[in-house]
Amino acid sequence: MKNLKTLTLGILALSFYSFTTMIDKKVDTEQSTVKWVGKKVTGQHEGTIKLESGSLQFDGKTLTGGNFVIDMTSITVTDLEGKGKANLEGHLKSDDFFGVEKHNKATFTVTKVNKLDDKNHDISGNLIIKGITKPINFTMAVEDNSATAKVIVDRSKFDVRYGSPSFFNDLKDKAIYDDFELFVTLSF
């Protein structure tokens, strides 16, 4: 009887410990940054976009999941000024690109994490842009209370067609490459 009580207490303690190691860390959206780079045959443009919310889930110190909401209305261009900046920002928000009037949020949800080493993780997840869900993969480095990643997104998979050689022939030097890069730095 005494052994049964000891075994039961041990199982309860182990169960309690396993539940208490799960940690949900909210991302500090004011300290976190998402920079984008879009390239075309004749050059490139860059800017920022803001996270509306986000969190990473950990089991102890091991990354296990995450989810994020991106405010598509916050797209800014940082390599132009004046009228050129305003025109490009307006164009990126228009139906030619991200259609932010109808689709003002994009989301990313982690579906799988493979730990590569002490800080690097292979991340798989679902990205939703313009109401279209597609899987993406990238590597994320996690250290202390920060994480960084370079994410490559193929815009043609999300029906972002303007200037895309995947949809239009004979664009020549007007072509805009389908892949754009996101450089993400998270603080939590």
Verbal overview:
- The chain has one domain (21-187): Lipid/polyisoprenoid-binding, YceI-like (Lipocalin, Beta Barrel), CATH 2.40.128.110.
- Helices cover 16% and strands 53% of the residues.
- It contains two helices and nine strands, in the order αββββαβββββ.
- Strand 3 (43-59) and strand 4 form a beta hairpin.
- The relative contact order is 0.17.
Apparent shape: elongated
- Sequence stretches where pLDDT stays below 50 over 5 or more residues: none
CATH 2nd-level architecture: Beta Barrel
Q: Radius of gyration, Cα only, in angstroms?
A: 21 Å
Q: What is the strand tally?
A: 9
Roughly what percent helix? 10-25%
What structural class do you assign from the helix and strand content?
Answer: alpha+beta
Give the class-level CATH name.
Answer: Mainly Beta
Count of spatially separate domains: 1
What oligomeric state do the depicted chains represent? Answer: single chain
- In whole angstroms, the N-to-C terminal distance is 47 Å
- Report mean pLDDT, rounded to a whole number: 91
How large is the count of helical segments? 2
SSE order and pairing:
Layout: H1 2-20, E1 22-26, E2 33-40, E3 43-59, E4 62-77, H2 82-93, E5 105-115, E6 120-129, E7 132-143, E8 146-154, E9 176-187
Antiparallel strand pairs: 1-3, 2-3, 2-9, 3-4, 4-5, 5-6, 6-7, 7-8, 8-9
In short:
The chain has 188 residues and is of the alpha+beta class. The chain has one domain: Lipid/polyisoprenoid-binding, YceI-like (Lipocalin, Beta Barrel), CATH 2.40.128.110.
